[in-house]
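Hi, here's the filled form for the chain we discussed.

Project: internal
Contact: R.S.
Residues: 548
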Amino acid sequence: MTVSRRLFVAAAVTTAVAASSSSLVLAASGSIGTAAAAAPEPPYRIPIGPDDSPDEVVTKASQVRPTERQIAWQRLEQTAFLHFGVNTFTGLEWGTGDEDPDVFQPSGLDTDQWARALRDGGFKLAILTVKHHDGFVLYPSRYTKHSVVSSSWQGGKGDVLRSFADSLRRHGIKVGVYISPADENQYLYGVYANGSARSRRTIPTPVAGDDRAGEAAVRSFTLDATDYGAHMLNQLYEVLTEYGPVDEVWFDGAQGRIPPEKVETYDWDSWYAVIRALAPDATVAVRGPDVRWVGNEGGLARENEWSVVPVKDSGNGSIDYALKYDAPDQGSRAALAESRAVAQYVQWWPAECDVSIRPGWFFHEDEQPKSVEQLTDIWFRSVGRNAVLLLNVPPDKRGLLPEADVARLREFRERIGRELPEDLARGARVRGDGRRPSCAVDADPDTAWVCPAPSRGTLTVDLGKAREVDRIRLGEDIRRGQRLERAVIEARTSTGAGWSLVTEVDTVGASRVLTLAAPVRTREWRLRVTGSRGTVRLAEFGLYRSRV
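And the returned structure, exactly as it came back:
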């Protein structure tokens, strides 16, 4: 995973053709053809250009809105990754593609154990490496033999994806899949990066003895793709039509360890059109239109993480960061102004923070999980900074999550519960200018206090009696965008006294968690908006006393 991430720097995200204006649209027959006219830009993406003034770009950024998919994804807060495959048994992080499939021999695969551990750890969605860069597939695909069908495990009848999806759903967890764009095995067979031109392809492509032949329910598509692009489309079709609803499709931008002149130009437009058609509710990340990679593998968001960032076209229906992928600032006024020379859009593109619970992405006997303190710090610097945490927990050679990791996940959830126990502001007396101040403390993310004007607004919370507070949680109503640029939080430490500054905050977005250096004991708290790029709608003003 680390190597693939390093190769990810040149390309970032793709825009699904079925979800935005493009040269392709899904036809009623299931084919994809040329659009007669471009559709209006969706609200999650607005065009900008060098002729726009800095203020005009900021205004456009304030008008960008997330899609329902993006809102649902953001509210998950933490999701899981499970790296499992031939690398688990060879000890590699990046396979070679010529592994003997029979090396895949999990002695006690129990995906229910995975699901229980993830549920108890507080995870609501988990992503399986259905195919990593080596090309080995964890389900019986019709389009490759480099898969579980060529292993003697379960007599060649095993299907890890089936077991995974069924177990997650039994335990109330959403299903995600990772299908690596890179494929070392298909390179060895002359399919990946073979220089083939894009041409019209029918998906699914029939194969000898195809068990789908003659089925009235088979839905076909006609799209542009290379030889390998069609291979990927066929595998996407299998996964998205035969394993129940898929809630997230995750890609990276890995190219494979092949000669540089053999680079495969991915058919992102066609891939995403099929995903939107077959799994319309699925989030597409992080090489996708819905979610971006934060820029590191440590699980850490920026101190001020904007969900609206400038982007530029990069071909085949894809877009890229307008600024450097790991730039310390992606969305402030200064960043937006800097990007005008190259950016073509401002887009709602929230950050995902990926990190592994162990040093490697696949299981290795000599590695141990991170401590609870490390995981807690990562949570505060990801979920607490307007991002979603993607934590990898790799199954071992038995096909089980290691006991140490299972215990750590449970301890991690318990620790976050102690960090943010009872919200002392819930249902408290609230007053403020603007509209609906009580909505900031009603625990409903779809209601919000509305400031009276841009860059101005005061909200006061009366706890009824003096209480100690050392954690503050804020959240905007992101359905109406991300607009807060600066606010101060103050406390009245004694009756009749004035207000004292406790802390300040710049960006908030969906979730911002502030840790005070020492507890503050008071009855009344006040938040003052002092900077914004439009009317602020604050959906959460939570006050906590940690029990750590």
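Let me know if anything looks off before we file it.
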